[in-house]
Write a structure and sequence with these properties.
The protein is an alpha/beta fold. The protein has 7 helices and 7 strands, in the order E-H-E-H-E-H-E-H-E-H-E-H-H-E. The chain has one domain: NAD(P)-binding Rossmann-like Domain (Rossmann fold), CATH 3.40.50.
């Protein structure tokens, strides 16, 4: 069992979906989790506290560099340290690039590329100052290497995030600060309802090799694994948690007798 007692984690974009599941998993392992979101993360904090965990909010926009600096500084000031950072906050506007609302295009880049960088920058400095190592997990996407039509800004930002994380892993290894990437598959989150109806999500999920969309907890299990001190030799890696979505979608790859 992962033991994060005495550790402090900061998770961005954690009021719902994958971020919330990551925050709950880290808190369940004993970490005090600082939960960032642009909206108050009251429900997540209530669930963590009800389960016997520790959590506190950091409300603000990840694309605001001054806020990122303040959030990291406040975490260290109030809790004495910062051991784990999970950059999860995301935004996406879907339309063909030549029909794009450029303000929305830029917002996608700001949240999905500059947001992770802002927190990576200040968290790394805090971890280096502590001198005790650290763990950073960047929630990226298969969009980093697949040119999904209608998502140019998101594709660009996630590709940049992957290179950012790998470069950071190289530069932070001497400080024993690990940086890894998670590529979630298609995950059943509230954000997907911006683009798809319920019946579409069910139908498309059934066509995946595992026969369903990922649950946020599926992704959180992978993040917890990477944050486990026993995973200290995993650095600069990309973990795909996609239920076999990159496999050929042939019947021979379907999982039989799936538990209900």
């Amino acid at each position: 069992m992962t033991n994060l007692e005495g550790k402090v984690a900061l998770v961005t974009g954690a009021a719902r979906g994958i971020g919330a599941a990551c925050a709950e998993a880290l808190a369940g392992a004993g970490a005090h989790v600082v939960i960032n979101d642009i909206n108050p993360p009251d429900e997540v904090i209530e669930r963590i506290v009800a389960a016997g965990g520790k959590a506190s909010p950091a409300i603000g926009d990840v694309s605001d560099r001054q806020f990122a600096e303040q959030a990291v500084a406040q975490t260290v000031r109030e809790h004495g340290r910062l051991d784990i950072l999970v950059t999860n906050a995301a935004y996406s506007d879907r339309r063909l690039f030549y029909e794009a609302d450029l303000a929305e295009f830029e917002k996608t880049i700001d949240v999905c590329m500059w947001g992770p960088f802002n927190f990576l920058f200040y968290a790394a400095r805090a971890m280096i100052a502590q001198g005790e190592g650290g763990c950073i997990v960047c929630i990226s996407s298969p969009h980093a290497h697949k040119a999904i039509p209608g998502a140019m800004a998101y594709n660009m930002a996630k590709a940049a995030m992957d290179q950012m994380a790998r470069t950071a892993a190289c530069e932070l290894a001497e400080h024993r600060i690990r940086v890894n990437i998670v590529h979630p598959g298609w995950t059943d989150t509230p954000g997907e309802r911006k683009f798809f109806h319920e019946d579409e999500l069910r139908e498309r999920g059934s066509q995946l090799p595992w026969g369903r969309l990922a649950k946020p907890s599926d992704i959180a299990h992978g993040v917890l694994f990477l944050c486990d001190p026993r995973s200290e030799y995993i650095d600069g890696a990309t973990l795909s948690i996609d239920g076999g979505a990159l496999l050929p979608h042939d019947q021979m790859f379907r999982v039989k007798n799936r538990p209900q």
